[in-house]
Each structure stands twice: as C-alpha cells, then as structure tokens.
Write a structure and sequence with these properties.
With 323 residues, this protein is an alpha/beta fold. Helix content is 41%, strand content 16%. The chain contains 10 helices and 14 strands. The strands form 5 sheets. It has a 6-stranded parallel beta sheet, sandwiched between helices. It has a two-stranded parallel sheet with strand order 5-14. It has a two-stranded parallel sheet with strand order 7-10. Helix 1 crosses helix 8, helix 3 runs parallel beside helix 6 and helix 7 crosses helix 10.
C-alpha cells in the first residue's frame, strides 16, 4: 500500500493530482493544521510536524509518494519571492531527508515547475528534455534553482525515485481566482459576468495548453514508471499541441454561442513569454496518449464550472492555492 502527500493540494495541479491519486486507490495524507505559507516564523515548525506525521503514516503503509505542487509565486514574481519559495522547499527537503522512516522504505518524489517559463527565450523549433533552458524572468530562474535543489538533495542516495516535471500552460475548471489565473479561466469569467477581458499579448501568441487532469495523469504515470535506482528524471508534461490566443477566443465563441468581449494591449510580461516552439517529450513518450481532453472539451468544462460557481455565489472562484 502507498500513502501520498500532495503539497499544494489546493492549487489547480494539486487538486488534479489528488483526484488522480484517489482514482488509483492511493491513501492520501494531509497535514493538520494547514501550512501558513506567508509566515516564515511558524512554517519551519509546521513542516517538521507535518513530515513527522507523514512518516508515521508511511511506515504503516509501507511505501510513500510526495508531490510538491506548492508555491507562493507567479509569472511576474520578483527574486525576493522566489528566494522565499526556495527556502520553503529547502526546509521541506531537509526534513524529509532527516526522517529515518522515509529513508528505510520505498519512496517517490515529484517536483513540478513551469515549462513555458523555463524555455521562454528558446529559439528552437522543437523543445524536448535535452534542449537548453532559456529563462527570461526571476520566476523561471527560481524554478530552475528548485530543480537543482532537488537534484542535490539526499533523496536519490536513499533510493527515492525523483521526477522533475516541467508542465506547459495549465488550465482547468474552478481555477483559483487570484492574480495567477490563466487566459482560459479569465475568458470564461468574462463571459459569465458579461464583462470585457483585457488580453495583454498579441492574438497570434502561441501556447501549449494542457488540461490539469491530463497533466496529473502524465505526471503520476511517469513517476510510477521510474525504475529502481534511477537518477532524478526530467519530464516535459505537455499536450504537444500549439494554440494561438485567437484560436482560444474562437473556441469560446463556439462553446458559448455568443461574442466574447475583449480588449487588446501589451503587458509587461508579454515579450518574455513569446513562445514559438513546440514541446515534444522524449522521456516515456508513450504517456502522451494520456492527453485525453481536446481544447473544445476543456474550454466547455471551464465555462460550465465558472457558470455554476457564479450562479451559486455571485462571485468567481476564490479558493486558496496553498496546500
């Protein structure tokens, strides 16, 4: 039996990972109380107590999995925020590595990061796991530092199988209503509220959009496919399809059967994420078949979820993104 802890279970990918784990019959752990991410005076102690409680559950189960999908940052976050996030991950890794129970029984660890940010400045036509990184923001550089932190941690030396998952542009139903919401959720809320949506990138801007459940399926399958004794493994988690902003807008028109109100302009980050390449994963490429959601289906689900939330509450979704 395996017990899993999704750190960041309140976020978009965290909720999807939790859902996929439940479907596989995996036992789930959640710390009590929830972590206070924005208070570094109490967070180290909360992490220590959470890891100790998780180790106890893992000993009973006989195997464990940790999914780090947490974060306090967004695409425009400055270096100070990324440094704070790095400290949080360091505290967590230190406690996991120091826990004798977790060293003695089989374990797996997944770290998620942003593929779009990490390769934002790439001039390649196709990007795969062997492509050079090309970060253009403190956010992307911070994510690379997190990956390096995991690579250098004692986890692999204890036999833990480690996956570094670089996820393309994620979307899904009921995305948390904060400043980090994506284009698809923003457009859905504009339709539901009958308000114009500002679009801060050119309409021919391309992105690899992947549904959160598809991303979770690929991540989970890849983590569990890693052989015993494997080095930390890098995996691109993407739909491997490109869509322009204009195509996203057109898809909403098809689904909603009405005009979408929007304005265009140039934002401060638009030039830093001018993706012109296609993702192609060479690591466990057979897992690409786990992308089961078409853009039309995904947009319809997001729009239906936002309508239900607005009808019930009169406001968009405002669930926290922390664990």
């Amino acid at each position: 039996m395996t017990v899993a802890w999704v750190v960041g279970a309140g976020g978009l990918l965290g909720r999807a990972l939790t859902n996929q784990l439940r479907q596989t019959g995996t036992s789930l752990f959640s710390p009590t109380p929830r972590f206070t991410w924005h208070d570094e005076r109490v967070l180290p102690d909360q992490i220590a107590r959470g890891v100790a409680a998780f180790a106890h559950r893992a000993q009973q189960a006989g195997a464990w999995e940790l999914y780090w999908a947490a974060g306090i940052s967004g695409m425009g976050s400055p270096e100070a925020v990324m440094s704070a996030e790095l400290r949080m991950l360091q505290w967590f890794l230190d406690r996991v590595a120091a826990e004798p129970t977790l060293r003695e029984i089989p374990g797996r660890f997944l770290l998620t990061s942003s593929a779009g940010g990490i390769y934002a400045g790439s001039s390649a036509a196709v990007v795969d796991e062997s492509s050079p990184t090309a970060p253009t923001t403190p956010y992307a550089r911070g994510k690379l530092q997190q990956e390096q932190l995991v690579r250098q941690s004692p986890l692999s030396a204890t036999g833990c199988r480690v996956l570094l998952a670089r996820v393309s542009t994620l979307y899904g139903p009921a995305q948390p209503g904060d400043s980090r919401q994506g284009l698809i959720t923003t457009l859905a809320r504009g339709i539901v509220r009958n308000q114009p949506v500002p679009i801060f990138v050119p309409l021919d801007t391309t992105r690899d959009y992947i549904d959160s459940q598809d991303a979770a399926r690929i991540s989970l399958a890849t983590l569990r496919s890693l052989p015993e004794g494997a080095d930390p493994t890098l995996k691109l988690v993407a739909s491997e399809n490109l869509f322009t902003v204009a195509e996203i807008v057109a898809t909403f028109r098809r689904v909603a059967h009405r005009r979408l109100l929007f304005t265009t302009g140039i934002g401060r980050l638009s030039g830093l994420y001018a993706m012109r390449f296609r993702f192609r994963s060479r690591v466990f490429p057979e897992h690409s078949r786990l992308v089961q959601t078409t853009l039309l289906q995904g947009v319809a689900r997001v729009l239906a979820a936002e309508r239900e939330i607005f009808q019930r509450t009169g406001e968009p979704h405002t669930r926290e993104t922390g664990p």
